[in-house]
């Protein structure tokens, strides 16, 4: 990995949505637009460049309220970005998420043919994300942004998803979420694990050296510098099925919660097994200064405490001895719940759509997001368990197993079904503020 000079990030040109962890609680909205008239699309870019919050705005009067904007490859084409510029973007971005379905494990119920329209179609051009500490302030933020896209008949809003993070920060399966956030060199934002060395800025923002010393660039430079790739996915969660599986495989209520912790790698309170292996510790789970401060290799190399195949150890093996270098596959991950919660104790599906709006931010779609999805979430070869899948978010269809290492005999759960179904998603690019202005000033 590289050493040398620390990056000095141009925070006033980077969208705040790239680097800032989200507050708790908060409300958010994803709004998708289609551009039918190039001139109006360019005008939209000019207008949103004055609305988007920069990463230097963490102390702004708006506080924990911000607007982010991203474009798909179809959107860049709709604005008239020259072919020679488009060809410098990552191949995966140019293909689009729907075309990458097999690699991502989006098969069966998650196949793009089953996605919610217009997700995964050429109609999705611009993605606007608004975030605020509560629903009222979210609507106020959207009111401030509305002039940017109103009175532009060549730009049409085609989809909206409202979502939220409750005060408990729990997602639909009942786990505290949003705990882990990497430290990014030069960002001025502390990571959630003080034991982790900050990652090079170029792992997440284009135009800066990454962990291998390379610099991701686009042509022209103004289009790429200070931008980032993003992936967002609407993930439906089968909460009733998850609860039934735990109950059917547990020996009692206490064992049910232990199984839930072993599948995730954390108790549902957020307390990690690595720091609280025998019982839940809600105070630890709710303490952001402690609940992510752990590694694996020294104390738990074989996964007797935190199983190698559990969700959080697959998503971030930290210092564990695995095939590959975990630092090359770190990513900024955010999840926001949508839909009504399933009432406690209910084991029957009520037909409501609920789940998580997942967001990835990084500079390397292939070796970050796609690698984690294909090699860590949907295969276990990296830790010596080839063919196994993430028991929480993997693409299993009821034929997979999950092993819990223990002495004297390991425990094996069989027939792990698919608990998470992809309802749609997009690969996007989050331009810098100066790139938004450049897009607005394009001339045929």
Automatic annotation (TrEMBL):
Report the GO molecular function annotations: peroxidase activity
Kindly indicate whether the keyword Metal-binding belongs to this entry. Answer: yes
| Keywords on record | Iron, Metal-binding, Oxidoreductase, Peroxidase
Cofactor(s) recorded for this entry are: heme b
Query: So which domain of life are we looking at?
Result: Bacteria
What Pfam families would the database entry show?
A: DyP_N (PF21105)
Keyword Metal-binding among UniProt keywords: yes
Residues of the DyP dimeric alpha+beta barrel domain: 29-147
The residues the entry assigns to the signal sequence are: none
The family annotation for this protein states:
Belongs to the DyP-type peroxidase family.
Name it: Dyp-type peroxidase
User: From what organism does this protein derive?
Assistant: Sphaerisporangium aureirubrum
């Amino acid at each position: 990995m590289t050493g040398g000079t620390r990056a000095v990030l141009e925070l006033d040109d980077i969208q705040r949505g790239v680097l800032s962890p989200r507050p708790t609680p908060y409300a958010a909205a994803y709004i998708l637009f289609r551009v039918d008239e190039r001139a109006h699309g360019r005008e939209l870019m000019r207008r949103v460049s004055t609305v988007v919050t920069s990463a230097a705005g963490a102390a702004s009067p708006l506080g924990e309220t911000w607007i982010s904007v991203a474009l798909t490859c179809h959107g860049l084409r709709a604005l008239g970005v020259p072919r020679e510029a488009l060809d410098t973007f990552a191949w995966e971005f140019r293909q689009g998420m729907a075309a990458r379905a097999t690699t991502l494990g989006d098969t069966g119920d998650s196949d793009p043919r089953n996605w919610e329209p217009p997700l995964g179609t050429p109609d999705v051009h611009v993605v606007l994300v608004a975030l605020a500490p509560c629903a009222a302030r979210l609507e106020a933020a959207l009111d401030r942004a509305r002039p940017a896209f109103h009175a532009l008949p060549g730009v049409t809003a085609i989809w909206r998803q409202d979502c939220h993070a409750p005060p408990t920060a729990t997602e639909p399966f009942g786990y505290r979420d949003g705990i882990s956030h990497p430290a990014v060199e030069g960002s001025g934002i502390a990571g959630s694990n003080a034991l982790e060395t900050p990652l090079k800025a170029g792992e997440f923002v284009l135009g800066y050296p990454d962990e291998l010393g390379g610099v991701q660039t686009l042509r022209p430079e103004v289009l790429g510098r200070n931008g980032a790739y993003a992936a967002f996915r609407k993930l439906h969660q089968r909460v009733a099925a998850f609860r039934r599986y735990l109950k059917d495989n547990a020996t009692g209520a206490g064992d049910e919660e232990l199984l839930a912790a072993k599948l995730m790698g954390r108790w549902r309170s957020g307390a990690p097994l690595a720091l609280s292996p025998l019982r839940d510790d809600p105070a630890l789970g709710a303490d952001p200064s402690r609940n992510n401060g752990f590694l694996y290799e020294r104390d738990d190399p074989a996964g007797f405490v935190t199983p190698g195949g559990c969700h959080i150890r697959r998503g971030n093996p930290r210092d564990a001895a695995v095939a590959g270098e975990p630092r090359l596959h770190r990513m900024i991950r955010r999840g926001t719940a949508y839909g009504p919660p399933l009432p406690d104790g209910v084991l029957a599906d009520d037909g409501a759509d609920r789940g998580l709006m997942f967001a990835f931010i990084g500079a390397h779609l292939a070796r970050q997001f796609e690698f984690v999805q294909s090699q860590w979430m949907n295969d276990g070869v990296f830790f010596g368990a080839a063919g196994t899948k993430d028991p929480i978010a993997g693409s299993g269809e009821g034929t997979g197993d999950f092993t819990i290492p223990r002495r004297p005999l390991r425990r094996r759960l069989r027939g792990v079904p698919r608990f998470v179904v992809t309802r749609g998603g997009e690969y996007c690019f989050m331009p810098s503020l100066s790139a938004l202005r450049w897009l607005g000033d394009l001339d045929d």
